[in-house]
Design brief:
This protein is α+β, with helices and mostly antiparallel strands. The protein contains 12 helices and 8 strands. It is flat, with a radius of gyration of 19 Å.
Length: about 260
C-alpha cells in the first residue's frame, strides 16, 4: 500500500458517517436541509451488483425526495473546508449540486465504486474510501483560505453571529473572509450563519414546541424571523416541516440526496 495511504485517517476530516438501510418495500426518504457541508454518498441498488458514488455539495435550500431501488447507502459528511484538499474540487463548484465522483476523478471514480461494491462490511467500505482519498490528497496542498474558513466556521457555530465581527476577530477584511469562505465552504458566511440558526431550531424543536423560545435560543430576532427563514430555506412553515418529519415512513437519508 502507498505510504501516504497507510497513515491516512478519515477521522481528521469527517464529522459524521451514516449507514442507512430503508424499510423493506419502501423508498428511501431523502431529507437534505441547508447546510454548509459536502458529503460523499455511496449507494447500493437492490440486486447488490450496481451502485454509484456521488459528491453532494453544500445546499442553500432544502431538498426532499424519495429514492427508489436503494438497498443501502453510506454517507461521509466532511468537516467544512475539506472538499478541496480531499476531493480536488472547490466547494463552490458543488453548491446545490449532486455530482458523480467519476465526473470529478475520471475513471478512478468509477473504479472506486466497483471496489466499494466488493466490500463485505461498513468498516471495509470506510477503509477503501480512506485509501482512495489518501492517494489523491498527497498530490494536493491545503490552501491558507481553507484554514481561515474553518476558523470562521468555528466562530459562527459558537457564539459569534455577525460576519463583520468574525472577520475582525480573525484579522481580515469582511471581503477577504467572504472570498475564502465561499471557495472553501461553498456558500458565503452570511448564508452559512443562516443554516446554523436553522439547524439549531430543528434540533430544539425535537424536544420543544415553544417556538418563541426556540427562536430565541437558535439566534433569531423573534418567532416571525424564524418562520420567514423556514419558508425561504425549507419551503415549509416550522409546523409543516415537523408534521412532515413525523409522518415519514421508512428510514430517512438526512443531509444528502440521490445523484441526478
Amino acid at each position: 500500500m502507498n505510504s501516504a495511504a497507510s497513515t491516512f485517517s478519515l477521522s481528521r476530516f469527517v464529522e459524521e458517517v451514516r449507514a442507512v438501510v430503508p424499510v423493506a418495500g419502501r423508498a428511501l426518504d431523502v431529507e437534505w436541509l441547508p447546510n454548509g457541508r459536502t458529503t460523499l454518498v455511496f449507494r447500493v441498488f437492490e440486486e447488490g451488483r450496481r451502485g454509484d458514488v456521488a459528491v453532494a455539495g453544500p445546499r442553500t435550500r432544502a431538498l426532499f425526495k424519495n429514492a427508489t431501488g436503494v438497498a443501502r447507502a453510506v454517507m461521509l459528511q466532511f468537516k467544512p473546508g475539506w472538499s478541496g484538499p480531499l476531493l480536488g474540487v472547490a466547494a463552490n463548484a458543488l453548491t446545490d449540486r449532486i455530482v458523480p465522483l467519476e465526473d470529478i476523478w475520471g475513471r478512478s471514480g468509477g473504479d472506486l465504486c466497483l471496489d466499494l461494491l466488493a466490500a463485505r462490511s461498513l468498516p471495509e467500505v470506510l477503509d477503501r474510501l480512506s485509501h482512495a482519498i489518501a492517494l489523491r490528497t498527497h498530490e494536493t496542498s491545503e490552501p491558507a483560505s481553507a484554514r481561515l474558513a474553518r476558523r470562521a466556521v468555528h466562530l459562527l457555530e459558537g457564539d459569534e453571529v455577525r460576519v463583520e465581527r468574525v472577520a475582525e476577530r480573525l484579522g481580515v477584511t469582511a471581503r477577504h473572509l467572504r472570498r475564502a469562505f465561499t471557495e472553501s465552504i461553498g456558500i458565503g458566511p452570511k448564508d452559512f450563519a443562516r443554516t446554523v440558526r436553522l439547524q439549531r431550531a430543528v434540533r430544539r424543536a425535537a424536544s420543544s414546541k415553544d417556538w418563541a423560545r426556540i427562536a430565541a435560543d437558535a439566534g433569531y430576532y423573534d418567532q416571525a424571523h424564524l418562520i420567514a427563514d423556514f419558508r425561504e430555506l425549507v419551503g415549509l412553515t416550522p409546523g409543516a416541516f415537523l408534521k412532515r418529519a413525523g409522518g415519514r415512513g421508512g428510514e430517512a437519508m438526512a443531509g444528502c440526496a440521490p445523484s441526478r
